[in-house]
Amino acid sequence: MTHEGTTALITGANKGIGFEIARSLGLAGVTVLAGARDRSRGEEAAARLGAAFVQIDVTSEESVAAAAEWIEKEHGRLDILVNNAGIAQGGPTPSRTPLETTRRVYDTNVFGVIAVTNAMMPLLRRSPAGRIVNVSSEVGSMEMASDPESPIYALNGVSYQSSKTALNMITLCYAKEFAGTSIKINACSPGYCATDLNGHTGHRSAEQGAAIAVRLALVDESGPTGAFLDDGGALPW
Ligand SMILES: NC(=O)c1ccc[n+]([C@@H]2O[C@H](COP(=O)([O-])OP(=O)(O)OC[C@H]3O[C@@H](n4cnc5c(N)ncnc54)[C@H](OP(=O)(O)O)[C@@H]3O)[C@@H](O)[C@H]2O)c1
């Protein structure tokens, strides 16, 4: 299936999983807008991708508004939004994690997603088949984190893990708002991928991690909305 004529914005596309999502969407025929907060890193990545660079710092209202304005001027609408930009910071234990750290993580992983989604929604409404993919993580699953048999049980990062739990609920809230429309909103878990986020300790490649986001970005009208998925299917919330 070709996706010529569709346009996608990927935040944090200059490296890691976001870069691979952008690369795969480009290969599928999508016009890729590679979002990055840093102009030189973003332009360099966009050149490698054969994509257009869009300056977007998800924590800056002005930057997000300017990106939406530019996309409207250049493309008139948006078909796919991948909220990929994210940071992972934390402390030794929840009670020893500075509040400032959690605020910083939420600014990007939670409020950043809401800000970008709301700014892009008027452009997505103009698409015949709008798709939003939120790059979440299985570490945000309440069910897995509370199951002693789950590998996630051992993790206890109050900032990052709870930011992804919030992102899952945000996904559900938007999916409920847009149920019955042509816009689908889903969350995905890339798995543990070797990227700068974790000092390249992950056992999967960024390309493998990107695959589920790409799949959800390209689902047709029979695809899910309000779901939380990885390569293996639905994940417990
Ligand atoms: N790696 C994993 O194992 C894993 C597992 C589950 C979920 N995830 C999620 O996957 C997503 C991508 O992570 P990654 O592993 O690819 O990490 P990464 O290599 O560190 O890439 C993160 C990207 O987000 C960008 N970013 C950070 N803050 C931003 C901001 N305020 N505005 C715009 N862009 C911003 C970074 O830009 P700069 O280059 O400017 O910093 C970079 O492009 C994240 O949401 C992460 O939580 C990753």
From TrEMBL:
Keywords: NADP, Oxidoreductase
Matches recorded under Pfam families: adh_short
One Gene Ontology molecular-function label: oxidoreductase activity, acting on the CH-OH group of donors, NAD or NADP as acceptor
InterPro entries found in the cross-reference section: CBR1-like (IPR045313), NAD(P)-bd_dom_sf (IPR036291), SDR_fam (IPR002347)
Family as reported in the entry's similarity comment: Belongs to the short-chain dehydrogenases/reductases (SDR) family.
Protein name per its UniProtKB record: Dehydrogenase
